[in-house]
Structures are given as structure tokens and as C-alpha cells.
Specification:
Strand content: 15-25%
Shape: elongated
Largest sheet: 7 strands, antiparallel
Number of domains: 2
Number of helices: 7
Oligomer: single chain
Distance between the termini: 26 Å
Radius of gyration: 25 Å
Number of strands: 16
Helix content: 10-25%
CATH class of the largest domain: Alpha Beta
Strand order of the largest sheet: 1-2-3-4-5-6-7
CATH topology of the largest domain: Rossmann fold
CATH architecture of the largest domain: 3-Layer(aba) Sandwich
């Protein structure tokens, strides 16, 4: 079977076929919310659920060469828990699948021997592509009963998976709190620095980082959260994170804290930054381009860098004038998108006014809301964020327009409809 990795999306398969009718009609394209079987002219055989003419739900495909996959499907792709066996003797792949790609890291402590393969409905003839090969009533009832049994088994396995993930999380990692599982192909490093030692402290960068981390976890990211990190800790976190990223991963980097523009480059400041000179800042701070370059070298499929660091220059006092307000325009590589919470020369608002009790800055609170809306591409999400932030800032007489630098190919979704 040749299952290709398409756009990685995070979705939890719904078993909608337990009480669905058998698919009726000779045009497979019209089959929707039903259970049935089909043989293709090349000899591939499928029995299970259909939505909109595509394999969706629980089912089994046996290819003409003897390979088979039994488990969850979404739009003709293995997606969810399942097992593939191969005619050429390759080791069976049991565990979580993401759009046709086996995610081996998800098999830890999962007992998939409990999964009972769906037995093939009698399919002995073929009258052309799209012809319906219907099970009789007894076969249909058996099929639906097995789907219902699998639904219950999968719920138990999902609970077990989430429990194991929570036990394995470090003290500074976010654990899964929603029904969506952590997906190894989605990784995020989130940093929030408030308690600066030699430059002005901030009030909600840590809270912004926590909010973004929680929301990323809810849409399937494996999140590493770091708060109030020193230069040594920040550089170590970046090295560790870069070492975890693999080719084809979807990656997000979020930083809330102080940042400065030095020349044409942007630098993110650890909490122990001193900054007696521009050369010292360049040496002790983290250059944003380094993060982007690391992701390019790792061949990440999609990289989103979010920087909420467009605040007043932390070095403008005590006779020092290192850098300026805001961050410099940047260049994203192919497959990357960079978004700053404010444009060049603008200040990002931590709150709208003294009556604003929201714990998050303006940019973060809006982004967290938009990323939870289903079926929005990343382009639409960031444009919605920019428009909403600009309007809210304007309502209090302030100019703040998030800057977007986009070189993304294809579509990325935080969340799609279940």
C-alpha cells in the first residue's frame, strides 16, 4: 500500500457508523455516513465506514499485493489507532497513524493486541470502478457490531495513552488536557521571561507563554514550556529542541519577553542579560535567525515563529541606547512564517487600559482565541489576529499592527472540524 503523507492535521476520529445504514447505490462518490464494502479494479478491497465517498471511521483495506491496514481512517488515509501488516514480511506497524504516516513514538505502553480486525465481507465480483458491493443483512449487522466494539476499545486505549503521556511529562512540559492526543509530528518550544535582573521586569510574559502552551497542547502539539530562563538555560533549551525536530515535522516557536533590534538582526533576551554594550548583548542574547536556521537545517515541513517582544527598549535608561523600540523586518525561509506582535517601531500592549483585568497581552489573548477556531488555515488565522489586534489597539488610541513574514507552502491548520 502506498500511503503518502499529506498535510498534517490534528483530528480525533469519530466513530459515526455504529448505527449507520449500509451504503446504497453504485456511485461510491455519493456514499456518506454509511458502512459498506468496495473492490477497486486493481484488486484492492475495503470494508468499513464512508463519508463523502471516502474511507472514514473504522475499516480494513487489503491491497492486491496482500498488504493490509485495519483501524481508523480519515479521508482515505490511515489516521488514528491502527495496525498495518505487510506481505513481504516487514514488521507490522501498530500504533498511531497520521494521514497515512506511521507515528512510531505513539506505541509506548499500548496493547493493540486487543484490536480485532474487521473480517472481509464476501466480495467476489467487480462491475466497474465505483460499484457497490453490499454485505447482506447479517454481514452488515456483524460489521456494525464490530465497529461499535472497536469504538469502546479505542476509547480505553486513548485514555491509557493520555495517562502514559502525563506520567512521562517533565515538570516544565505541558500535559494533554483535551480529547486530542499529543502528536509526535507537532512540536513546540514556548518561552516566557518576566523576571529580568538588570533590565526592567515584565508582568505577563510568563502568563502569555502558559496560555500559548496550553492551547498548543489542545491541538496536538508536544510542548516544551520554559519560564524565566537564563542565557545558559535558553541556549540549552534551543539545542535540545532542535535535536528533537525531524524532517517533516510541524514546528512552533513562541517567545514572550524582551527583544531588541541590533542592526538588521533581532535578539531575544534571557533574564540574566546585562547589556553593557552592543557587542555584549549580541553575545549573551539569542538571535531569532538562529532559531529559524536550525529549523531549516532540520527540514521541518512547517515552522511558525511567534515573537511577542515588541516592547519599550530595555536599554534606553542609564545613559545606554542599545537598539530601538520594536523589531527589525525579517526574512522567512521556504516553509516558514514569522509573526511579531507589533510592527517596526510599534509597542505591543500588555493591556488595553487600567480596567483591563485580562492576564494576557493583547496579541496573545487574540491569537489564543483564533487558533481554536476550526477549519481556518494559518494564513486566515494570522490575518484575523492582525485585524483584531489593530482594531482593539485603535480603540484606546494606540497603533499596533502585528507584522507577518510568510513563506509557507500549502495549508496548515491548527484545528479542523471533527
Amino acid at each position: 500500500m502506498n500511503w503518502h503523507l499529506g498535510l498534517l492535521i490534528c483530528i480525533s476520529t469519530n466513530f459515526v457508523f455504529a448505527e449507520s445504514p449500509a451504503c446504497v447505490g453504485s456511485n461510491i462518490v455519493e456514499w456518506s455516513n454509511c458502512a459498506g464494502s468496495h473492490i477497486y479494479p486493481n484488486g484492492d478491497k475495503y470494508v468499513g465506514g464512508f463519508v463523502g465517498g471516502k474511507f472514514s471511521g473504522f475499516g480494513q483495506l487489503v491491497s492486491k499485493n496482500g498488504d493490509s491496514y485495519t483501524g481508523d481512517w480519515f479521508e482515505n488515509m490511515p489516521h488514528g489507532l491502527g495496525k498495518a501488516t505487510y506481505a513481504n514480511g516487514r514488521v507490522p506497524a501498530e500504533g498511531r497513524w497520521i494521514n497515512g504516516r506511521f507515528s512510531q513514538s505513539q506505541v509506548i505502553n499500548l496493547d493493540l493486541s486487543k484490536i480485532t480486525p474487521v473480517q472481509q465481507v464476501n466480495v467476489t465480483s467487480e462491475t466497474g470502478s465505483g460499484s457497490a458491493l453490499q454485505p447482506d443483512n447479517s454481514e452488515r449487522e456483524r460489521l456494525l457490531a464490530e465497529v461499535e466494539l472497536e469504538r469502546k476499545k479505542r476509547q480505553e486505549l486513548e485514555q491509557q495513552l493520555r495517562g502514559n503521556q502525563q506520567k512521562n511529562q517533565s515538570s516544565q512540559s505541558i500535559t494533554a488536557s483535551s480529547s486530542l492526543p499529543i502528536i509526535a509530528n507537532r512540536r513546540a518550544l514556548v518561552i516566557g521571561n518576566d523576571t529580568y535582573r538588570s533590565v526592567p521586569k515584565l508582568v505577563n510574559a510568563r502568563e502569555d507563554a502558559r496560555t500559548i502552551a496550553t492551547n498548543l497542547t489542545s491541538v496536538g502539539f508536544q510542548v516544551t514550556l520554559k519560564l524565566d530562563v537564563t542565557e545558559k538555560e535558553m541556549k540549552a533549551a534551543l539545542r535540545t529542541f532542535a535535536g528533537q525536530v525531524q524532517g517533516g515535522d510541524e514546528v512552533l516557536f513562541f517567545f514572550a519577553g524582551h527583544g531588541v533590534q541590533l542592526g538588521a538582526a533581532n535578539f531575544l533576551l534571557p533574564i540574566d542579560i546585562v547589556g553593557d554594550s552592543e557587542a555584549q548583548v549580541k553575545d549573551e542574547a539569542i538571535q531569532l535567525q538562529r532559531v529559524l536556521d536550525d529549523m531549516s537545517e532540520k527540514k521541518a515541513k512547517f515552522t511558525l515563529a511567534m515573537v511577542d517582544a515588541c516592547r519599550d527598549n530595555p536599554f534606553k535608561s542609564a545613559g545606554r541606547a542599545i537598539g530601538g523600540r520594536g523589531l527589525a523586518p525579517t526574512t522567512a525561509a521556504t516553509g516558514q512564517m514569522v509573526i511579531f506582535s507589533a510592527g517596526t517601531g510599534q509597542q505591543a500592549l500588555d493591556k488595553l487600559n487600567n480596567a483591563d483585568k485580562n492576564k494576557n497581552g493583547l496579541f496573545t489573548r487574540v491569537f489564543a482565541q483564533e487558533m481554536q477556531k476550526p477549519n481556518l488555515t494559518i494564513d486566515r488565522v494570522v490575518k484575523n489576529v492582525r485585524n483584531e489586534v489593530a482594531q482593539l489597539a485603535k480603540s484606546v488610541g494606540h497603533e499596533q499592527v502585528p507584522a507577518i513574514y510568510d513563506q509557507v507552502l500549502g495549508d496548515f491548520y491548527f484545528k479542523v472540524p471533527k
